[in-house]
Amino acid sequence: MTQSHVSGGRAARRIAFATIGDAREVRFWSGTPFHMSESLSSEGHEVLHIGPLNAPSLPLYKAYSRFCRTFLRQGVSPFHAGRVVAQYAADSERKIRAASPDVVFAPAGSSFAWGVPKGVPLVYASDATFRLVDNYHPNYRNLSRAARDMAERLERNTIARADLILYPSEWAAESAIRDYGADRARVHVIPWGANLKEAPERGSVLGCRKPGPCRLLFIGANWEEKGADIAVGTLAELKDRGVEAELVICGCTPPKPVTHDGLTIIPYLDKNDRDQRNRLDQLYRDADFFLLPTRADCYGIVFCEAAAHGVPSIAPATGGVSCAIRNGETGILLPPNATKADYATIILEIFANADRLARLRRSSRDAFEARLNWQTWGRRVSDLIQTL
Question: Can you give the residue ranges of the Glycosyltransferase subfamily 4-like N-terminal domain (predicted)?
């Protein structure tokens, strides 16, 4: 194949971008594969979408999984059923062979990437290893022994097959090396970016702070897992200490009705709808702090989005969060067992120091521009792909 050249002297590659879902659809996996593929395209590569993949038996196993969770209180992951895995692998192999690519790029593709045809370089990207999420992340709690064994085997085989292994955090990268024997030379940590169609202008988010109370913003899809109860408790704690404060919770609703002075709950905003996207942008612009007391997170794209808007994040140092947030630069990290009083104390301490808050806002935006964006990710990944 004759390869054209892109900027920086790099050769353009024909990349088979392989995903279980449709990476052209921005709603798939919160838009992360969409932005990855767009970033690689912007680097001059020819990106061929190998997905969505087909597993005809998946609906049957999904129904069985729902039955087991409801009546047996045990997780049977439909994506780790042997028949489903075999069908995904066969479909991906057929489509990859038909595409005749230079490279296969498989984000979160451990269920099929182990079977990528030999002789084609494989780039595997994920935000965690199975060993890390097993009984940590809510999607991987209380799995059956068969599902755990299959997930472990797929992870190990995919890591062994991959020529490049990319993670957004040292937390995940070290697990691949420690728990799965990955060759350190093949493992690279490249932060993921903010899933924004267009980043806000620097000047528009770092202007003079809007006067008024201390404004907290929480964005998460699961009330309990993302720690919305702690966020509400933090609001109450601040008010008890005499601080005028407001909290906007966006993306979820409480299991029982919750009301509090200064609390606003927005169940859902669609980032792909212009009006709702504008409303979400305004929430970021108005916020002094992005507060997410999450109980389990592999990275946190939302922290990158907060940084893009110059909003420092306050969150616990759990999972891969400490790589999306650098303590004292893009926000403040607290211990995983931090209480509402701990959150209120650090927020009050920073809010009372206007210069410190302004510095945090600037350094958050600086971090977004330097590394927490998909353009930077794409350039670094492109350079690595050349080595294949």
Answer: 35-197
Task: Quote the CA–CA distance of 104 and 164 in Å, as a whole number.
Answer: 10
Give me the pLDDT at residue 1, please.
35
Confidence of residue 63 (pLDDT cuts 50, 70, 90): confident
What domains appear along the chain, each with residue ranges and CATH number? 7-193+373-386 (3.40.50.2000), 202-370 (3.40.50.2000)
The token duo for 140 is: 């991987």
- pTM check: above 0.90: yes
